[in-house]
Amino acid sequence: MASATSETSMPGALKLLIAGGFGVGKTTLVGAVSEFDPLTTEAPITQASVGVDDLAATSDKSTTTVAMDFGRISIGNEDVGYVLYLFGTPGQRRFWFMWNDLCTGALGAIVLVDTRRLADSFEAVDFFESRRIPFVVAINRFDDSLAYTADEVRIALELRSDVPVIECDARSRKSVVEVLLCLVQYLLDAELESARPVAAAQTVGGLQP
Fold it and tell me: At 109, phi and psi to the nearest 5?
């Protein structure tokens, strides 16, 4: 591959969103790979949230994201590289108004899901589908989570057949990088597909963290 610009018009700096339900691991995911200490807007969960936020499945969680998380990671090799700017969205419903601002300029997204609370993922899936923002689904495997397969999660979330579904551990840098590479490859494939038949014979691959 000679260069990124010779095969695709996708820029070298990509704004990506990390979305999902409350307590699914978005802040952890951004922190696992960011090249600098990530910017977080974590605030303590207080009694004011009682009756407003559903904490039943996350009783041990003491903070919540009230605006966004922000981190950065560079991936690539000697031929092509990308700088990924990661924006984690707030998970609690009362902060969802931030999503519209955060999605401005975003080229793709990761929908992080917890199989113990799959219903919490529908809003994120619907949000990105309605705005035609490409996304992949990452299953964050908690120790006590239900062992649903990727295909079962795809069916449960009513995803299109082309949407990648991948398992991950949001605490592991290596695992998160694999998800990011999956998303970047998905974006590249979509870009090349839209450029056919001019780029029909071209392929993109070999990205490394």
Answer: -150, 155
Strands 63-65 and 42-44: what pairing? antiparallel
Segment holding 135, helix H or strand E: strand 135-140
Q: Where are the alpha helices (DSSP H) in the chain?
A: 4-7, 26-33, 97-102, 122-130, 150-156, 173-195
Measured CA to CA, the distance from residue 19 to residue 69 in angstroms comes to 10
User: How many domains would you assign to the chain?
Assistant: 1
The answer to whether the CB of 18 falls within 8 A of the CB of 87 is: yes
Whichever domain contains 99, its CATH number is: 3.40.50.300
State which residues form the domain around 116. Answer: 4-195
CA 30 distance to own-chain centroid: 9
Q: Are 186 and 14 in contact (CB under 8 A)?
A: no
Task: Find the farthest-apart pair of alpha carbons in the chain and give their distance in angstroms, rounded.
Answer: 59
> By the 8 A CB rule, do 178 and 168 touch?
yes
How do residues 25-73 score in pLDDT, each as one tens digit?
999 999 999 999 878 765 554 444 444 445 555 445 445 544 578 999 9
Query: DSSP string of 43-55?
Result: EE--GGGTTTS--
Distance CA 70, CA 68 (A): 7
Answer whether residue 152 shows pLDDT above 90: yes
What DSSP designation does 39 have? B
